[in-house]
Write a structure and sequence with these properties.
With 697 residues, the chain is an alpha+beta fold. Helix content is 36%, strand content 20%. The chain folds into 5 domains: 60 residues, Helix hairpin bin (Helix Hairpins, Orthogonal Bundle); 194 residues, DNA ligase/mRNA capping enzyme (D-amino Acid Aminotransferase, Chain A, domain 1, 2-Layer Sandwich); 101 residues, OB fold (Dihydrolipoamide Acetyltransferase, E2P), CATH 2.40.50; 151 residues, DNA polymerase, domain 1 (Orthogonal Bundle), CATH 1.10.150; 78 residues, BRCT domain (Rossmann fold, 3-Layer(aba) Sandwich), CATH 3.40.50.10190. The termini are far apart.
Length: 697
């Protein structure tokens, strides 16, 4: 069967792009795209080569271990080849790895015997954190440190012994007089990295992009004094060669990697022995009996890794029994007995298949990239916002482009970069249209004066009104349970509602006549509508879809005026002086309440609902009084809206951006750029458990 040319072209482009970025990363210590994005490209190449093995070539990036060493350092030939692990990105891939290990062991010699090897006939696994730093290889002779080298290309590294000697966690003499080669990771604490970057910014120097960057940049300093000032750390995780006099009597199978001694019989015992020798070993490793326990460990750490003072982009999973490791052996570039199980990436690569438009409730037109579906930050994504015309022009995105997609927590995915080097020449430039069908009617659009955004000319079209109804009944507005988009569409189509107040005048018979409505569902919906008649002033304002007035503005207005009557009577001059409002938002709010039709809608609503009075608080005595708090990532125990409400109740102010005036940042699961900004500015960061404790005070 012939292979399509587009597959061959895609593989060629992937190889060229990966090689380019690997050279920048491993050889020059420069980084133009994130580790996660490069991993995504490599994963796509690996999958294509697995599907079309006849296209695999010896020079493919999938067959390589690392880059060339820098010429400034003396070269060191590794006595033990340095391998890298293949990656897994999903539970399914981990179960495939487990099945593959068992198949190979079942067909290997000697045959498995029930209970024959330590751990039984079925392999068990040891899980370790995949530390984000620089790999280091240490050789000891009769207990004394002889050389320290970088991984380099896997066979030839760089001698960085004098620099590594400055790292306090590296023992210059082992606690046993053994000759050994060990492998591990050099890394820097997050707080120290933030501190170092602040110092570099003051000097006008470029800040380090990530932990691996700073580890590589530090270890390659020509002056060991500079390295000592960096306060680097290590975690050692592999004993690749061992000889002792007298030989260690620890049992276990002969190892092809050992140098005359007897290595511990399991991976978890090896880690314990490394600790006994005097190395710093990450304490969170775990021995797991099954692959399901491995997956559970991955889920556990995926949710709490941000709490650690080091970075890890996944876990490393190894068959625990050394005898089984030796039987499984290696491929050309990686061990068959281990795999790196990556955490959900916040950056991946995918392809823009089309650019479509989405119309918001205020008539603003937003371009959206329709993407080849891809997993990012734990969910499948097929769309990403392109924000506006200027952003498309800035990115230079074309239909058919390979792009880097970023997603942090529950934030809408963003395209952050176009990989122009992946272009084949078939990509189509995008032209901004004059009409958008989603606007309804003639679909004409216009650019908003002084802004980058476009909007529908007809802002009273059915398409826009429908979106306003979705928002009015949604969780940010009146939060009417059961009144979702499908039910609203049904009510609008049958003219049961024409304006917001009509929702509160619906009768049982009005609903029973409609398709898909049974007596129980009608009763449930009417009960939910009845419950929603009592509403806070901020929610009432948000539900009205006043342009420029989001949740924060609505809360600021409600807190300042205390009642809808006072807000409606406020002039533009009064509004613009309110902290957090300003002239643009002030004019929008004044214009909206000045519109006769809007006033009629508000009056009709006031005849159906009750706005709860704003409670005056003695905020000075509250635990978060005067504190500005920023939430980032996903909180597991409460929604973003609930967390913000609790902050306000305790006298604090939730904010959407981090600044030097921010008092603290709450980092949930998949926390993104706000967390990095907080570290950069030295703002206090707390985790979800600490935040919940704070709310109880």
């Amino acid at each position: 069967m012939s292979i399509p040319e587009k597959i061959k072209d895609r593989i060629a482009k992937l190889r060229d792009t990966i090689d380019h970025h690997r050279y920048l990363y491993h050889v020059l210590d420069k980084q133009k795209i994130s580790d996660a994005a490069l991993d995504s490209l490599k994963h796509e190449l690996f999958e294509l080569e697995r599907k079309y093995p006849e296209l695999v070539t010896p020079d493919s990036p999938s067959q390589r271990v690392g880059g060339k060493p820098l010429p400034e350092f003396q070269k060191v030939r590794h006595k033990v080849p340095q391998w890298s692990f293949n990656d897994a990105f999903s539970e399914e891939e981990m179960r495939e790895f487990d099945a593959r290990v068992k198949r190979m062991l079942a067909s290997s010699s000697p045959p498995l015997q029930r209970g024959g090897v330590r751990g039984g006939a079925v392999p068990t696994y040891t899980c370790e954190h995949k530390i984000d730093g620089l790999k280091i290889v240490l050789e000891y002779e009769k207990g004394l440190l002889k050389t320290a080298a970088t991984r380099g290309d896997g066979r030839l590294g760089e001698d960085v012994t004098e620099n590594v000697k400055t790292i306090e966690s590296v023992p210059l003499r082992l606690r046993e007089s053994v000759s050994a080669i060990v492998e591990g990771e050099v890394w820097m604490r997050k707080l120290r990295l933030a501190e170092l970057n602040r110092e570099r910014k003051k000097k006008g120097e470029e800040p380090f992009a990530n932990p691996r960057n700073v580890a590589a940049g530090s270890i390659r300093q020509l002056d060991p004094k500079v390295v000592a000032e960096r306060k680097l750390e290590t975690y050692i995780y592999d004993l690749s060669s061992l000889s002792a006099s007298p030989p260690l009597q620890r049992g276990g199978a002969e190892s092809a990697r050992r140098g005359g001694g007897v290595l511990p019989p399991t991976q978890h015992e090896e880690l314990e022995y490394l600790r006994k020798l005097g190395f710093k070993v990450n304490q969170h490793f775990k021995h797991c009996a099954t692959i399901e326990e491995v997956i559970h460990y991955w889920h556990e750490w995926k949710g709490k890794m941000e709490r650690e003072d080091y970075s890890a982009d996944g876990i490393v999973v190894k068959v625990d029994e050394r005898e089984l490791q030796e039987r499984l052996g290696y491929t050309g570039k990686a061990p068959r007995f281990g795999i790196a199980f990556k955490f959900p990436a916040e950056q991946v690569t995918t392809v823009v298949e089309d650019i479509v438009f989405q119309v918001g409730r205020t008539g603003v037109v937003t371009p959206v990239a329709a993407l080849r579906p891809v997993q990012v930050a734990g969910s499948t994504v097929s769309r990403a916002t392109l924000h506006n015309e200027d952003e498309i022009r800035r990115l230079g995105v074309r239909i058919g482009d390979t792009v880097i997609l970023q997603k942090a927590g529950d934030v809408i995915p963003d395209i952050v970069k176009v990989l122009t080097e992946m272009r084949s020449g078939k990509e189509k430039p995008f032209r901004w249209p004059n009409r958008v069908a989603a606007c309804g009617g003639e679909g004409r659009i216009e650019r908003i004066p002084g802004e980058a955004a476009w909007r529908c000319v007809d802002r009273d079209s059915f398409a826009i009104q429908r979106r306003k109804f979705y928002h009015f009944a949604g969780k940010h507005g009146f939060d009417i349970d059961g009144l979702g988009p499908k039910i609203i569409d049904l009510l609008l189509a049958h003219k049961r509602v024409m304006a917001f107040p009509d929702i509160f005048t619906l009768k049982r018979d009005d609903l029973l006549e409609l398709p898909r409505f049974a007596e129980k569902s009608v009763d449930n919906l009417l009960a939910a509508i009845e419950k929603a008649r009592a509403v806070t002033l901020p929610r009432f304002l948000v539900a009205l879809s006043i342009p420029q007035a989001g949740e924060e503005t609505a809360y600021d207005l409600a807190e300042h005026f205390g009642s809808l009557e006072k807000l409606r009577a406020a002039s533009f001059e009064e509004l613009e002086k309110i902290h957090g409002v300003g002239p643009v938002v002030g004019k929008s709010v004044a214009d909206w309440f000045g519109d006769r039709n809007n006033r009629r809608i508000v009056d009709a609503l006031l005849g159906e609902v009750r706005i709860e009075k704003m409670k005056k608080k003695d905020t000075v005595t509250l635990s978060l009084a005067g504190k500005t708090c920023v939430l980032t990532g996903t909180l597991l125990s409460l929604s973003r809206e609930e967390a913000e409400r609790r902050i306000r109740e305790l006298g604090g102010s939730p904010s959407g951006s981090v600044s030097a005036k921010t008092h603290f940042v709450v980092a949930g699961e998949h926390a993104g750029s706000k967390l990095e900004k907080a570290k950069e500015l030295g703002v206090a960061v707390i985790n979800e458990a600490e935040f919940l404790t704070l709310l109880k005070k």
